[in-house]
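Structure ticket #2291
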Amino acid sequence: MATTRHDIDEPTRAFVTRQPMFFVASAPLAASGRVNVSPKGLDAFRVLSPNLVGYVDAGGSGNETSAHVLENGRVTLMFCSFDASPRIVRLYGRGEVVLPSDAKWAETYARFPPFPGARQIVLVHVDRVGSSCGYGVPTMTVAEQRDLLPEKRKKLGDAWYAPEGNCVSVDGLPTHLARRS
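Resolution: structure written out below.
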């Protein structure tokens, strides 16, 4: 049965932190804009308080969440159980992007394990927690986390993102990284 809350209780915290991956969804305000859904893994996610979560984000093929947070703030994180106990949890809230050049970077980043190529931290100020059954989600076994992204970022060093590919969304919206360029 579906339930909703306004904060992350201890059972929900335990569930979301146990999942090996999660999905981030965001969208621009324009009806013609593209909705973005990104899978995230590794050890990048943390529950920071009953109403605040975050994840370290490394440079990749785009930066849609940053653009959407900058434009309208809306972010949803979804966690699915793929083991024998079916459950889905969605964390709804307002996003905030913290860049390495921001004053609060050091304090915020210290709450996460070292992450090669960390380009930003996406914080979500959670105002709704939805939980549902997950009966339609298949059971699967995780073989292992891939270390390809951290290894690639270690090799690239300071050249961890391509500004031209990360400063504008696919819909032409500026991202937080545009402030750095």
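Closing remark: Strands lie at 3-5, 22-26, 36-40, 45-49, 52-58, 74-80, 88-98, 118-132.
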